[in-house]
Amino acid sequence: RVLFRSNRPAISRDGHSADGVFDDTHTYAETKRELIIWITLIVSIVLLLCVLNLCGPLNHILGAFLFGMFGILAYVFPFMLFFSTGIFLINRNNKRVVRKVICSWFLYLVLAALVQMLVNDKVSGVFDCYMLGCRTKFGGGFMGGCISLSLSAVMGKLAASIVLIIVCIMLFVF
Q: Residue 167: phi, psi to the nearest 5?
């Protein structure tokens, strides 16, 4: 007994129907995913050009913001944004892949904290970390500063560094 019957011919994996006609209709969800991936590619290219000082006056706004937020890891941010968005949208139903994408972002933040810990400049707060990232394009930026300064205040710089290294290993394996 058939509950649902469609008037559309069956479509094979290569897009051809049973009678050999190519069917190029996309669902709304597929079109939306493709559009998001294309927009993310454009945004990532603009961000990369800003980080590399190749985007004119936008360098001073977006480039400085990225360096202030993530320090030297701002160079990696456009790639992380594009690849994680693409991988997530293509495999969003695969829980293992989604977990790996989330772990990669946490690893990115923990690496920013480790870079901030390695910087020998004395910073008194996270705003100083932001300004250090903007001025020198080094350090861990605001995000790395938040993590590293709070951990250093609780357990000291050496213990915080060891904890961050262990967390990096765990996130890389997980």
A: -65, -40
